[in-house]
Fold each of these.
Amino acid sequence: MHAILQYIESYLGSNQTPGAAGNMFWVFVYILLVFLGLSVAVIAMNWLERKILAHMQVRLGPMRVGPHGLLQPIADALKLLLKEDLVPAEADHVIFWTAPFMVVLAAFTVFVVVPFGPTHAITDMNIGILFMLGVSSLSVLGIVMAGWASNSHYPLMGALRSSAQMVSYEVAMGLAVTSAILMTSLNAAGTGTLSMIGIVQAQLVQGEWFIFKFFPLGLIAFFIFAVAMVAETNRAPFDLPEAESELTAGFHTEYSGFRWSLFFLAEYSAMIAVSSIAVTLWLGGWLRPFPNLLGGATWDLAFSLVPGISFLFLAALCFFNAARMPKHPYFRLQTLGLAAFGTVLAVIGLVLFIPGVRVRVQDIFWFAGKVTGFMYLYIWYRGTFPRYRFDQLMRMGWKVLLPMGLGVLMLTAGVALYQQNLWHR
Amino acid sequence: MLIGGVLVITRRNPVHSALALIATLLAQASLYLMLYAPFVAGVQIILYAGGIMVLFLFVIMLISVQQSLKERQFNSQWVAGIIAATALGGLFISVYLKGKDLVPEQAAAVGEADNTQRVATMLYGQYMFAFEIASLLLLVAIIGAVVMAKKKI
């Protein structure tokens, strides 16, 4: 018993990720935390998408199920669990069952290396970014299998289109990622790193987020990745494979109930995963704004109060809206619910002011905040842009983004060599 | 890996064989990891399992599976097969027993952390010519495929 407690406590003083320290207990704890956080994020994303799209289209979105529709995702989940689980006639049972499993596996395994902080990752592989790109390319296999196993021509066409699109934009993504990795090698030793935590630390040491480095090359590389990641996850404006008016929902047409919700879960998780890659590579990961320029104890304190203040702001919004609810007895329960939710947010905000918690949670907050910004951009794109036709989509992937990626890579390499030569004079 | 390999050759349905091949390739990537070569493992997953197998699946899906499920599987030369397999197995066993100097047990443990850098230094330094020739070969293959597939040039 004492040995177990000692094993658990032996990790608490180290400055490594639990995978690197080899501590299995904390690895499991972190995996559980990431899984829970991801589930909450997917649920929140579902609600946010419907509400934000609605407000962009000058309507209200779900308002009935909970106060301002906050319980709508739970109602959706219950509905999907209770639906009849169909398998189409003459469909291949093994592959029909395996396909959503592969997609969810690929979408969730990616989070093993996502760095929420300098020691807040499940593990830190030497090939972190390579692992992420590789495992997310396994989801293409799941989609192909899903389309084929449904034994129906709409899903098959949707699956073929979707996988062709994903494979094409993976090339552009890879080139943009390469030019960011190149920037990690601009140190005295001259060697870069593929590990996710190492990339953010390179940005900290060089004092500049890679999006601003060698302006405008970092920006163009970020732009290429931002477009390719939207195409990679089959989201608007690149969502022809799952467009309802063209293909009756594409490769997941024949899936119902829980299996469909697995696809949907995997799609949102993949969105969060590629946004994490973009945040880590270009936007400085867990670093707060201006870690070097506005350094020092007082600025650190000021920035570390931001998580608590933001949660208190959200709680204030909840209370304000609860006060604005109609004073009809029908709405009494909803008003109470909204006030309770606001209280929970306020308690979280107050807990985030405690110095011990503040120091540890700060990095996770900045990382999550940046990823949330990307999620808002995803929803914004969906509400704004018209859909690309499939040949326009493929043309853009191969004829526009690929040459741009090659050009940015060559120019970044050239400028980096020039800068290094200036150093080793 | 063995199970995956056996499943590839024994399944009637070609899509099941392709899936078993994917499992075999993932097992191969983990073998590379055990040999302290994480970069090669990562590249194996990205390119082979995530790229080439997708193309395999495209082609398999576009041919008719019903026909191939009904075809008779011919294995009437099992005598010659057994003799060849025994000979190959004997060759492997004799290499393992007699050639212990060829496979040193300790040399691979060095340099796991900088596997990527070492592969890059060797590929772009010492083996640059082979690298360029391989890329030229791929270019020729691409041009050939486009020429054969286009309706009019």
Note: Chain A has a mean pLDDT of 86.
Amino acid sequence: MPVELTRVDEVLWEIPAAARADMRVPARIFADSELLDAIAEDDSLEQLQNVATLPGIVDAALAMPDIHQGYGFPVGTVAATEPPHGVISPGGVGYDINCGVRLLALPLTLAELGGRKERLVHELSRAIPAAAPRGAGGGLSPGELDAVLVDGPRSLLDEGLATHADVEHTESRGRLDGADPARVSQRARQRGAPQLGTMGSGNHFVEVQSVARVFDAAAASAFGLAEGQLTVLIHSGSRGLGHQVCTDYVRRMDAALAGHGIELPDRQLSCAPISSDDARAYRAAMAAAANFAWANRQVIAHRVRQAVRAVAGGAAADATRQVYDVAHNVAKIERHGGREVCVHRKGATRAFAAGSEEVPAAYRDVGQPVFIPGSMGTSSFVLVGRPPAMERSFGTVCHGAGRALSRTAARKRIGGAELRRQLEGAGITVRCPSNRGLAEEAPFAYKAVEKVVAVVERAGLAARVAELRPAGVVKG
Amino acid sequence: MYRWIEHTGEVELEIDSDSEESVFADALDAVSELLRDADDEDFAGAAGPRLERTISLTAEDRARLLAAWLGELAFLAETEGLVPDGLSDLRVGNGVLDATVHGYESDPPHLIKAVTYHRLWFAPQRGRWRAHAVLDV
């Protein structure tokens, strides 16, 4: 069924609430005409309208320019609901709770690394497994896992796996309050206990990059980035633990929908009023999974430093600094427009403007850093949150380039071995055990990240700070 | 019989079988294909020791039982490296499933994160049994 779209401004489109009887608010999409045409090719817009039916949703169901078809929520969605009767939806956070990105800045340039680049990528691939090695024991003990679930990276300080500076430069300082390990099922614990410090497969990666261009010298200086500098971008999440938490609570809330008097167009949107016991339990489990994800990226960052130590020496490793770590799958209670709301970000990144106390003190005068990975082999961007984001998108921007082709379609167009040759030919060192996995992440399977970033910049949500060009990638 | 449907972000499974039980057997075959990564020569011969697991599941209805079944296979693959290749003693009825899964230990490179409830469907249709599920990979 064709969707009725009204152009609000140059890069904002709206589907009015009246478009469907069950929509409570409009659906709004940040996009230019070209991206909108691509977005309209799959079920994204219908799924966005489904989100607009959630009880207690306020303002609008918002889509970022990297939106693509998901399940329940499309990927690239922001939805805020107002407590106490507004709902929280586990599917609106997604299975990979607190999937996110962390950027590390090395104290040397790509030119200074020189011929050691191949070795660095190799060391990273050795140090950071995609999956937990089987037969290597159960990983974290129950007590260690509880500590990670409650305290995130802070639980790793005493072991030397994290620094206070790392914690300070992490969204929410790496800990969502209210985490309760008792709300995390035994099955989720079993999946997660061996997986701390593993990357996962799919679109997760660790990428070696260099700063190719600086757009905003003041912000880049605040973030400690300069042209030519080496960076490492880590993309991973809460692994099997988060996947199971979401599975458990989608099932629980689905079974309780009638009891809460909620009717939905898609079972995957299952939800419960924020004041309910079901929601309280989910929030406690989600917070635990989010903390696990921050700790997971923390251990990966530690392993990056170990690889840097092996290749470039201890001084370089010790001076490898965390720029920031930001989630793109999470739900948080925040104040916007003078009221408290539960902001679901599903494939969308928090991007608070300068002045927010949520932004680390060192960046508070410029705004929160945001990292937008491109597709494999293309540039990524460092952005900074701008004040209009607080007015227009609950302080949120996009999270990546956004898929344009299915995995099957990508595999039909190129084989993994050929793609590996092309990337290596372009000077990008590749370590990926699976040719299929590599082909599924081919650059042409994604939208052009430059266009996605241009839209959020034109909308005033964020501004470009730096462009990061890939030099090597490790994939699960 | 099963087939994969185009989905921008994930994988979408459609099953068409001659009995309710066969839907579960076909679902196992689909998961096996996904895990084996037949296109990837690096993993084609990575079969380890034989494994056998007995499974009992309950759910509110057929569709949710299928999701639980797929979820159980995903769990076994992630936690034990079990790549399934056979099934015995399958009994399905009234939201209950009992079965023994056979397979081998391996390091499947492509795990299934979760089985969603999006477009989850399982019903008799024109003398056949049809089902549908979206998997987060």
Note: The mean pLDDT of chain B is 91.
